[in-house]
Amino acid sequence: MAWRAPFIFTGKGEFVTCTSQKDTELFYAVLGGLGQFITRARIVLGPAKERVKWLRILYSDFSSFSTDQETLISTTGPSHKVMPDYLEGQLLMSQSPLDFYPQSQHQKITSLINQYGIVYLIEVATYYDNKNEDKVSHQSSYIPQ
């Protein structure tokens, strides 16, 4: 799936259309979720990959978290085809729901939150076909474990 031309309702109350070539900064800001409302979008669908490599990386130190996240962000975008296809940063705090985590990890995550107050999380995923499994493993080897 690739975004082509989202129709945006901006914070200034304007409806605009942007693409990766027209109003590039707004286009990538919207993809990053920076406060705009997508009211309609043209999305190009393609064949689905066979597999996904998905990682959640927990941090107690904000500096390490932000450094690693910036490194991953710098490998994303139209000129990079390495990794990841999906990237999200989150904060886990005392009231954060853990519904999307395996029950077996709840106690460990809760313990980390109690110890550090805030736990930082990077979630990454890359989609691939079986024939590219070795390549994906190599490309993701720089991600801290």
Question: What are the secondary-structure elements, in order, as H or E?
Answer: EEEHEEEHEHEH
Radius of gyration: 18 Å
Average of per-residue pLDDT values: 80
Runs with pLDDT <50, length 5+?
Answer: none
Q: What is the CATH homologous superfamily assignment of the largest domain? A: FAD-linked oxidases, C-terminal domain
Overall geometric form = globular
CATH topology of the largest domain: Vanillyl-alcohol Oxidase, Chain A, domain 3
Number of strands: 8
Strand order of the largest sheet: 3-2-4
Q: Quick one: CATH class of the largest domain?
A: Alpha Beta
Name the structural class.
alpha+beta
Q: Can you give me a brief rundown of this structure?
A:
The chain has 145 residues and is α+β, with helices and mostly antiparallel strands.
Describe this structure in words.
The strands form 3 sheets. Strands 3-2-4 form a 3-stranded antiparallel beta sheet, with no helix packed on it. Strands 6-8-7 form a 3-stranded antiparallel beta sheet. The protein folds into 2 domains: 2-44, no CATH class; 51-142, FAD-linked oxidases, C-terminal domain (Vanillyl-alcohol Oxidase, Chain A, domain 3), CATH 3.40.462. It is built from 4 helices and 8 strands, in the order E-E-E-H-E-E-E-H-E-H-E-H. Helices cover 28% and strands 28% of the residues. A hairpin with a 5-residue loop joins strand 2 (7-9) and strand 3 (15-17). It is globular. The chain has helices spanning 24-31, 62-73, 103-116, 133-139; strands at 2-3, 7-9, 15-17, 37-40, 43-44, 51-59, 86-92, 119-128. The protein has 145 residues and is α+β, with helices and mostly antiparallel strands. The mean pLDDT is 80. It comes from Citrus sinensis (Sweet orange). Belongs to the oxygen-dependent FAD-linked oxidoreductase family. Residues 50-139 form the Cytokinin dehydrogenase 1 FAD/cytokinin binding domain.
